Amino acid sequence: MFSKNYSAKVGKKCNFSKIINGVYLILFLSFIYPIMRTLKRKGEIESLLENYRNNEKSIGFVPTMGALHRGHLSLIRKAKEENDICVCSIYVNPTQFNNPNDLEKYPRQLEEDIKLLENINCDILFAPDNEEMYPENEDEMSFNFGELENVMEGKYRPGHFMGVGTIVKKLLDIVKPNRAYFGKKDYQQLLIIRSVCEQYNIDTEIIGCEIIREEDGLAMSSRNKRLSPKQREEAPYIYSVLDYASIMGRRMQVTDLKDWVAKKISSNKEMELEYFEVCDANDLSIIKEWGYDQKVMGFIVVNMGDIRLIDNINI
Ligand code: AMP
Protein backbone atom coordinates (compact mmCIF):
# COMPACT_ATOMS: atom_id res chain seq x y z
CA MET A 1 0.00 0.00 0.00
CA PHE A 2 1.25 3.52 -0.87
CA SER A 3 1.07 6.23 1.70
CA LYS A 4 -1.52 9.01 1.14
CA ASN A 5 1.35 11.48 0.65
CA TYR A 6 2.91 9.39 -2.09
CA SER A 7 -0.41 9.05 -4.01
CA ALA A 8 -1.02 12.81 -3.79
CA LYS A 9 2.49 13.48 -5.15
CA VAL A 10 2.01 11.05 -8.06
CA GLY A 11 -1.45 12.58 -8.75
CA LYS A 12 0.05 16.06 -8.89
CA LYS A 13 2.84 14.82 -11.17
CA CYS A 14 0.26 13.27 -13.53
CA ASN A 15 -1.76 16.52 -13.67
CA PHE A 16 1.42 18.48 -14.31
CA SER A 17 2.50 16.22 -17.17
CA LYS A 18 -1.04 16.42 -18.65
CA ILE A 19 -0.76 20.21 -18.68
CA ILE A 20 2.70 20.06 -20.30
CA ASN A 21 1.39 17.64 -22.95
CA GLY A 22 -1.55 19.99 -23.58
CA VAL A 23 0.81 22.92 -24.08
CA TYR A 24 2.93 20.89 -26.54
CA LEU A 25 -0.21 19.86 -28.41
CA ILE A 26 -1.36 23.49 -28.72
CA LEU A 27 2.12 24.57 -29.91
CA PHE A 28 2.20 21.70 -32.41
CA LEU A 29 -1.30 22.46 -33.75
CA SER A 30 -0.63 26.19 -34.00
CA PHE A 31 2.52 25.34 -35.98
CA ILE A 32 0.53 23.23 -38.46
CA TYR A 33 -2.52 25.52 -38.45
CA PRO A 34 -1.17 29.02 -37.73
CA ILE A 35 -3.68 31.26 -35.98
CA MET A 36 -3.83 33.51 -39.05
CA ARG A 37 -3.23 32.30 -42.61
CA THR A 38 -1.25 34.77 -44.76
CA LEU A 39 -1.76 34.17 -48.48
CA LYS A 40 -0.25 35.95 -51.45
CA ARG A 41 -1.88 34.20 -54.40
CA LYS A 42 -5.43 34.69 -55.68
CA GLY A 43 -5.86 30.97 -56.36
CA GLU A 44 -4.87 30.03 -52.79
CA ILE A 45 -7.30 32.35 -51.06
CA GLU A 46 -10.09 31.55 -53.53
CA SER A 47 -9.91 27.81 -52.83
CA LEU A 48 -9.58 28.29 -49.06
CA LEU A 49 -12.64 30.55 -48.97
CA GLU A 50 -14.59 28.22 -51.27
CA ASN A 51 -14.27 25.57 -48.53
CA TYR A 52 -15.67 27.96 -45.92
CA ARG A 53 -18.54 28.98 -48.21
CA ASN A 54 -19.38 25.30 -48.87
CA ASN A 55 -19.62 24.87 -45.10
CA GLU A 56 -22.06 27.81 -44.91
CA LYS A 57 -19.59 30.08 -43.11
CA SER A 58 -20.17 33.80 -43.58
CA ILE A 59 -17.18 35.91 -44.67
CA GLY A 60 -16.45 39.49 -43.56
CA PHE A 61 -13.82 41.44 -45.51
CA VAL A 62 -11.71 44.52 -44.66
CA PRO A 63 -9.55 45.83 -47.54
CA THR A 64 -6.64 48.07 -46.45
CA MET A 65 -3.34 49.48 -47.66
CA GLY A 66 -1.61 48.46 -44.42
CA ALA A 67 0.35 50.50 -41.85
CA LEU A 68 -2.53 49.47 -39.64
CA HIS A 69 -3.86 51.59 -36.77
CA ARG A 70 -6.87 51.47 -34.43
CA GLY A 71 -9.14 52.77 -37.21
CA HIS A 72 -8.41 49.69 -39.34
CA LEU A 73 -8.59 47.40 -36.31
CA SER A 74 -12.09 48.69 -35.44
CA LEU A 75 -13.26 47.53 -38.89
CA ILE A 76 -11.67 44.12 -38.39
CA ARG A 77 -13.30 43.74 -34.95
CA LYS A 78 -16.69 44.54 -36.47
CA ALA A 79 -16.10 42.06 -39.31
CA LYS A 80 -15.20 39.40 -36.74
CA GLU A 81 -18.29 40.11 -34.63
CA GLU A 82 -20.68 39.91 -37.58
CA ASN A 83 -19.18 36.99 -39.55
CA ASP A 84 -17.76 33.48 -39.05
CA ILE A 85 -14.53 34.23 -40.94
CA CYS A 86 -12.67 37.55 -41.12
CA VAL A 87 -10.43 38.36 -44.08
CA CYS A 88 -8.19 41.42 -44.24
CA SER A 89 -6.22 42.46 -47.30
CA ILE A 90 -3.09 44.61 -47.38
CA TYR A 91 -2.17 46.00 -50.75
CA VAL A 92 -0.85 49.46 -51.61
CA ASN A 93 -2.75 49.96 -54.87
CA PRO A 94 -0.60 52.01 -57.29
CA THR A 95 -3.48 52.92 -59.65
CA GLN A 96 -5.29 55.03 -57.04
CA PHE A 97 -2.29 57.30 -56.40
CA ASN A 98 -2.33 60.31 -58.70
CA ASN A 99 0.82 61.59 -56.97
CA PRO A 100 3.90 59.29 -57.45
CA ASN A 101 5.63 60.88 -54.44
CA ASP A 102 2.68 59.95 -52.19
CA LEU A 103 2.84 56.34 -53.47
CA GLU A 104 6.57 56.10 -52.91
CA LYS A 105 6.38 57.50 -49.38
CA TYR A 106 3.27 55.58 -48.32
CA PRO A 107 4.22 53.73 -45.08
CA ARG A 108 4.78 49.98 -45.46
CA GLN A 109 5.25 47.66 -42.41
CA LEU A 110 3.94 44.19 -43.25
CA GLU A 111 5.66 42.32 -40.39
CA GLU A 112 4.26 44.73 -37.79
CA ASP A 113 0.81 44.56 -39.41
CA ILE A 114 0.81 40.75 -39.30
CA LYS A 115 1.45 40.89 -35.54
CA LEU A 116 -1.41 43.37 -35.03
CA LEU A 117 -3.77 41.17 -37.04
CA GLU A 118 -2.72 38.04 -35.16
CA ASN A 119 -3.31 39.81 -31.85
CA ILE A 120 -6.95 40.46 -32.73
CA ASN A 121 -7.40 36.97 -34.19
CA CYS A 122 -7.98 37.92 -37.79
CA ASP A 123 -8.42 34.61 -39.65
CA ILE A 124 -6.92 35.31 -43.06
CA LEU A 125 -4.62 37.97 -44.49
CA PHE A 126 -4.43 38.40 -48.26
CA ALA A 127 -1.22 40.28 -49.15
CA PRO A 128 -0.72 40.07 -52.92
CA ASP A 129 1.93 41.84 -55.01
CA ASN A 130 1.47 44.00 -58.13
CA GLU A 131 1.91 41.09 -60.58
CA GLU A 132 -0.87 39.21 -58.83
CA MET A 133 -3.32 42.14 -58.87
CA TYR A 134 -2.39 43.66 -62.24
CA PRO A 135 -1.30 40.88 -64.61
CA GLU A 136 -0.10 42.06 -68.02
CA ASN A 137 -2.48 42.45 -70.97
CA GLU A 138 -5.55 42.73 -68.80
CA ASP A 139 -8.52 44.77 -70.06
CA GLU A 140 -9.26 48.02 -68.21
CA MET A 141 -12.50 48.11 -66.24
CA SER A 142 -15.01 50.85 -66.83
CA PHE A 143 -17.22 52.63 -64.32
CA ASN A 144 -19.77 55.38 -64.41
CA PHE A 145 -19.85 57.18 -61.08
CA GLY A 146 -21.82 60.15 -62.43
CA GLU A 147 -21.60 63.31 -60.34
CA LEU A 148 -19.94 61.43 -57.46
CA GLU A 149 -16.70 61.54 -59.43
CA ASN A 150 -16.82 65.26 -60.20
CA VAL A 151 -16.54 66.62 -56.67
CA MET A 152 -13.86 66.64 -53.96
CA GLU A 153 -11.55 63.58 -54.22
CA GLY A 154 -12.79 62.93 -57.77
CA LYS A 155 -12.07 66.51 -58.82
CA TYR A 156 -8.79 67.04 -56.94
CA ARG A 157 -7.32 63.58 -57.59
CA PRO A 158 -7.97 62.77 -61.27
CA GLY A 159 -8.15 59.00 -61.87
CA HIS A 160 -8.23 58.21 -58.14
CA PHE A 161 -11.69 56.60 -58.10
CA MET A 162 -11.02 54.67 -61.31
CA GLY A 163 -8.10 53.10 -59.35
CA VAL A 164 -10.19 52.55 -56.21
CA GLY A 165 -13.09 51.06 -58.21
CA THR A 166 -10.75 48.71 -60.09
CA ILE A 167 -8.96 47.33 -57.04
CA VAL A 168 -12.08 46.98 -54.90
CA LYS A 169 -13.93 45.19 -57.73
CA LYS A 170 -10.96 42.80 -58.15
CA LEU A 171 -10.73 42.12 -54.39
CA LEU A 172 -14.49 41.59 -54.02
CA ASP A 173 -14.39 39.15 -56.97
CA ILE A 174 -11.62 37.16 -55.26
CA VAL A 175 -12.95 37.16 -51.68
CA LYS A 176 -16.70 37.18 -52.49
CA PRO A 177 -17.53 38.30 -48.95
CA ASN A 178 -21.01 38.45 -47.44
CA ARG A 179 -20.10 41.81 -45.92
CA ALA A 180 -17.27 44.30 -46.56
CA TYR A 181 -16.32 47.07 -44.13
CA PHE A 182 -15.15 50.59 -45.02
CA GLY A 183 -14.46 53.66 -42.90
CA LYS A 184 -16.56 56.82 -43.09
CA LYS A 185 -13.30 58.76 -42.94
CA ASP A 186 -13.18 58.13 -46.69
CA TYR A 187 -16.90 58.85 -47.03
CA GLN A 188 -16.84 59.58 -50.76
CA GLN A 189 -14.95 56.30 -51.31
CA LEU A 190 -17.68 54.47 -49.37
CA LEU A 191 -20.34 55.82 -51.78
CA ILE A 192 -18.12 55.00 -54.78
CA ILE A 193 -17.80 51.39 -53.58
CA ARG A 194 -21.58 51.09 -53.14
CA SER A 195 -21.84 52.33 -56.73
CA VAL A 196 -19.28 49.71 -57.94
CA CYS A 197 -21.44 46.98 -56.35
CA GLU A 198 -24.60 48.37 -58.01
CA GLN A 199 -22.92 48.70 -61.41
CA TYR A 200 -21.57 45.13 -61.35
CA ASN A 201 -24.41 43.47 -59.36
CA ILE A 202 -22.02 42.43 -56.61
CA ASP A 203 -23.92 40.71 -53.83
CA THR A 204 -21.88 42.02 -50.89
CA GLU A 205 -23.32 44.19 -48.14
CA ILE A 206 -21.17 47.34 -47.87
CA ILE A 207 -20.97 48.54 -44.28
CA GLY A 208 -19.80 52.04 -43.31
CA CYS A 209 -17.93 52.31 -39.98
CA GLU A 210 -17.45 55.33 -37.73
CA ILE A 211 -14.24 57.41 -37.81
CA ILE A 212 -11.77 56.48 -35.07
CA ARG A 213 -9.81 59.44 -33.71
CA GLU A 214 -6.76 60.01 -31.56
CA GLU A 215 -7.53 61.38 -28.09
CA ASP A 216 -6.81 64.90 -29.36
CA GLY A 217 -9.37 64.52 -32.18
CA LEU A 218 -7.04 63.86 -35.13
CA ALA A 219 -8.62 61.25 -37.42
CA MET A 220 -6.38 58.17 -37.43
CA SER A 221 -4.59 57.65 -40.72
CA SER A 222 -1.58 55.69 -41.96
CA ARG A 223 -0.23 58.98 -43.30
CA ASN A 224 -0.11 60.42 -39.73
CA LYS A 225 3.05 58.32 -39.27
CA ARG A 226 4.82 60.68 -41.68
CA LEU A 227 4.02 63.87 -39.72
CA SER A 228 6.98 65.58 -38.06
CA PRO A 229 6.62 66.15 -34.27
CA LYS A 230 5.69 69.80 -34.96
CA GLN A 231 3.13 68.85 -37.63
CA ARG A 232 1.70 66.14 -35.36
CA GLU A 233 1.31 68.69 -32.58
CA GLU A 234 -0.61 71.06 -34.90
CA ALA A 235 -2.68 68.45 -36.80
CA PRO A 236 -5.58 68.16 -34.25
CA TYR A 237 -6.41 71.78 -35.14
CA ILE A 238 -8.15 70.41 -38.28
CA TYR A 239 -10.70 68.56 -36.14
CA SER A 240 -11.17 71.48 -33.77
CA VAL A 241 -12.12 73.68 -36.77
CA LEU A 242 -14.46 70.95 -38.10
CA ASP A 243 -16.01 70.46 -34.68
CA TYR A 244 -16.77 74.17 -34.36
CA ALA A 245 -18.17 74.17 -37.92
CA SER A 246 -20.43 71.28 -36.94
CA ILE A 247 -21.82 73.12 -33.91
CA MET A 248 -22.10 76.63 -35.39
CA GLY A 249 -22.47 75.77 -39.09
CA ARG A 250 -26.23 76.06 -39.53
CA ARG A 251 -26.31 79.45 -37.81
CA MET A 252 -24.34 80.91 -40.73
CA GLN A 253 -24.91 81.05 -44.48
CA VAL A 254 -23.14 78.13 -46.22
CA THR A 255 -20.72 80.50 -48.03
CA ASP A 256 -19.88 82.29 -44.75
CA LEU A 257 -19.13 78.95 -43.11
CA LYS A 258 -16.80 77.99 -45.99
CA ASP A 259 -15.01 81.35 -45.75
CA TRP A 260 -14.70 80.99 -41.99
CA VAL A 261 -13.13 77.50 -42.28
CA ALA A 262 -10.74 78.70 -45.04
CA LYS A 263 -9.67 81.66 -42.87
CA LYS A 264 -9.13 79.49 -39.80
CA ILE A 265 -7.03 76.88 -41.62
CA SER A 266 -4.92 79.49 -43.45
CA SER A 267 -4.14 81.12 -40.09
CA ASN A 268 -2.10 78.00 -39.24
CA LYS A 269 1.39 78.22 -40.76
CA GLU A 270 1.77 74.43 -41.00
CA MET A 271 -1.42 73.98 -43.05
CA GLU A 272 -2.67 74.56 -46.55
CA LEU A 273 -6.36 74.04 -47.28
CA GLU A 274 -7.02 71.96 -50.42
CA TYR A 275 -10.79 72.13 -50.05
CA PHE A 276 -13.67 72.41 -47.61
CA GLU A 277 -17.02 71.43 -49.12
CA VAL A 278 -20.50 71.25 -47.67
CA CYS A 279 -22.48 68.44 -49.30
CA ASP A 280 -25.67 66.42 -49.10
CA ALA A 281 -24.65 63.17 -47.37
CA ASN A 282 -26.70 60.97 -49.72
CA ASP A 283 -25.31 61.99 -53.12
CA LEU A 284 -22.52 64.48 -52.25
CA SER A 285 -24.13 67.26 -54.26
CA ILE A 286 -22.64 70.57 -53.11
CA ILE A 287 -25.20 72.62 -51.22
CA LYS A 288 -25.58 76.39 -51.20
CA GLU A 289 -28.35 76.64 -48.63
CA TRP A 290 -29.30 74.57 -45.62
CA GLY A 291 -32.25 72.30 -46.43
CA TYR A 292 -34.79 71.39 -43.76
CA ASP A 293 -34.33 67.79 -42.63
CA GLN A 294 -31.39 67.34 -45.03
CA LYS A 295 -28.41 65.27 -43.87
CA VAL A 296 -25.41 67.51 -44.55
CA MET A 297 -21.69 66.89 -44.06
CA GLY A 298 -18.57 69.04 -44.18
CA PHE A 299 -15.55 67.52 -45.99
CA ILE A 300 -12.01 68.79 -45.62
CA VAL A 301 -8.55 68.09 -47.04
CA VAL A 302 -5.55 69.84 -45.54
CA ASN A 303 -1.95 69.51 -46.72
CA MET A 304 0.80 69.62 -44.12
CA GLY A 305 4.02 69.74 -46.15
CA ASP A 306 3.58 66.86 -48.63
CA ILE A 307 1.21 64.95 -46.32
CA ARG A 308 -2.45 65.03 -47.28
CA LEU A 309 -4.95 64.72 -44.42
CA ILE A 310 -8.66 64.05 -44.98
CA ASP A 311 -11.56 64.32 -42.53
CA ASN A 312 -15.29 65.02 -42.37
CA ILE A 313 -18.09 65.79 -39.94
CA ASN A 314 -21.90 65.94 -39.78
CA ILE A 315 -23.27 69.49 -39.83
P1 AMP B 1 -6.59 52.57 -46.03
O1 AMP B 1 -5.61 51.57 -45.52
O2 AMP B 1 -6.24 53.98 -45.76
O3 AMP B 1 -6.96 52.30 -47.48
O4 AMP B 1 -7.93 52.32 -45.20
C1 AMP B 1 -8.56 51.06 -45.21
C2 AMP B 1 -9.93 51.22 -44.63
O5 AMP B 1 -9.83 51.70 -43.29
C3 AMP B 1 -10.79 52.22 -45.41
O6 AMP B 1 -12.11 51.73 -45.48
C4 AMP B 1 -10.70 53.46 -44.54
O7 AMP B 1 -11.80 54.32 -44.69
C5 AMP B 1 -10.67 52.85 -43.15
N1 AMP B 1 -10.09 53.79 -42.19
C6 AMP B 1 -8.92 54.45 -42.28
N2 AMP B 1 -8.75 55.26 -41.23
C7 AMP B 1 -9.85 55.14 -40.46
C8 AMP B 1 -10.28 55.72 -39.23
N3 AMP B 1 -9.55 56.63 -38.59
N4 AMP B 1 -11.47 55.35 -38.72
C9 AMP B 1 -12.23 54.43 -39.36
N5 AMP B 1 -11.88 53.83 -40.52
C10 AMP B 1 -10.72 54.18 -41.07
Q: What would you say this structure looks like, in words?
A:
- The protein is α/β, with parallel strands linked by helices.
- Helix content is 44%, strand content 17%.
- The chain is built from twelve helices and nine strands.
- The protein has helices at 4-32, 42-54, 70-82, 100-105, 110-119, 130-133, 152-156, 160-175, 187-199, 229-234, 237-248, 254-266, and strands at residues 37-39, 59-64, 85-90, 124-126, 179-183, 205-209, 272-280, 296-304, 307-314.
- Helix 8 (160-175) crosses helix 9 (187-199) and helix 11 runs antiparallel to helix 12 (254-266).
- The longest helix is centred in the N-terminal third of the chain and has 29 residues, at 4-32.
- It starts with a helix and ends with a strand.
- It binds adenosine monophosphate.
- Residues 64-65, 71-72, 74-75, 182-183, 185-186, 209, 211-212, 219-222 line the site of adenosine monophosphate.
